[in-house]
Amino acid sequence: MGARSFGAVALAVVVAGLAVTRVLDNQYYYFAGYVVLQYVVLATAWNILGGYTGYVNFGTPAFFALGAYTAVVLIQSLKAPLAIQLVAGAIISGLLGLALGYLTLRLRGVFFSIATLALAVVLQTMFINWEYTGGARGITLVRPASAPLFGNYVQFLFVVMLGLAVLAVATAWWIERSWIGRGLTAIRDNEEAAECMGVPTLRLKLVATTVSGVLMGLAGAPFPYYVTFVEPTSVFDLNYAVNSLAMPMIGGSTTWIGPVIGAVLLGTAQQIATVTISSALNLLLVGLILVAFVILAPEGIVGLVQRLARRSGERTRRSGV
Amino acid sequence: MSAEAFLDVQGVTKRFGGFQALSAVSLQVRQGERFGLIGPNGSGKTTLINCISGTLRTDGGRIVFADQDITTLPAHRRTRLGIARSFQIPKPFTSMTVLQNLMIPIEYAGRGHRDGVVDEAMGILGLMGLAAKAHVPSAALTQIEMRKLELARAMAARPRLLVSDEAMAGLSSTEVDDILAILFELNQRGITIVMIEHIMRAVMRFSERIAVLDAGEKIAEGGPDEILADKRVEKAYLGE
Asked: What residues of chain B lie within 8 A of the CB of A200, using their CB?
């Protein structure tokens, strides 16, 4: 997809989202839509490091929660507006990504993944013991009653998350096409060879962890106003780690559209399962779908579609002869 | 001697835990030279190459390339200075086509002109006899094609010094001749070549000078005939 058509689609998505807020009144759809879009951001962010670069991060909750708690601190101390919360959440989580990169990127493969898992546990313990942000009990926040132009604040948050989703996907789209993306792919394919072919592997991996951290922090920052109650167990939920990994795997991890497809399909399925069956079923659902995909279509939906397209192309050619 | 050395390895030492992989190895390679590096399995050849290309840090000694001390430079910086290597076990970028494999060093090490990069890559593939495979996924290549891709990709970094790590292991004798012809051709174009090889026929024919490693030490250095006549070399390979 060229830059112009990508821009047109992105614009159309935002306009459609705005139009929806003019017609649709049922608040539930905004709550549900927000969660799906939040997963578009998280899955896309995860994929920059996990899909493009090949470093599997189990620490999504750490980045997400740090974004959320940054917002909590800013609300508590300064009553800062949402825009400030977003910028600060992005910066703090980005710095965490950079630090994680520096400390752990010399670790390869599974050792890196274990370190990211530990990061989430350490941060969670920290926030459980920090009284200012409510400690283990959690903290209740008062959402602004209304937002300018939108009236309803939840609709406003929905549009904000839509904007963040477009930003995240555009970032991934750009990286994929740039020299950075080609370098990241070389690292994923063979890191030693990449380094010997002139790719500054450490620097590029730091770019990946930082950008991924920034986007995850952005996804977390509006969360306090969305739920109005933040506690460690909910923002450090295993759901974020599993979903942000499973969605790109199911959608296809080598291209920007994969995480989007995965997040929209799986996120929507989870929302439907939550209201029709039970919220506890979500992870089971994700687990089963993930197992099925790993076995039957390891390259995700995008890879499956490409494979089928190639096969039908060959068949047409053969029947043409 | 070191004044005219293009690559000057000075007393390089490398340990892995308690194992002394290299003990104070020194050697000089002149510009434009065809230099052979031989030795029995486990003698430290690949370790030395890794120290020269930068994938391993040395525990002692200095490495000077084109009058610049590169001892502590990361590998990608050395590649940009003009040291490129091929790997003993081919390490292609498996998700890319053959052509895309070459684009990585052209883009990252080839001092950045975006124009004409595809032509440059196709030129190299032509020289290696891989032009017809340009758009094939690199994972689908045969063994000899993989070896050629290793050399082609190293060439795409526009090296002044090419280190070829056992590019011919496991190939048939006509295939060995193929690779040798390519290396001679590259040398003709002014590229200094260090060849690590087990196939004696190839090293002896190719190299102007040869260094022999045994158990991490350099035990001999000289022209092919001197090396063949050297008693210590014979002992290293055949025992008492």
From this structure: 74, 76, 108
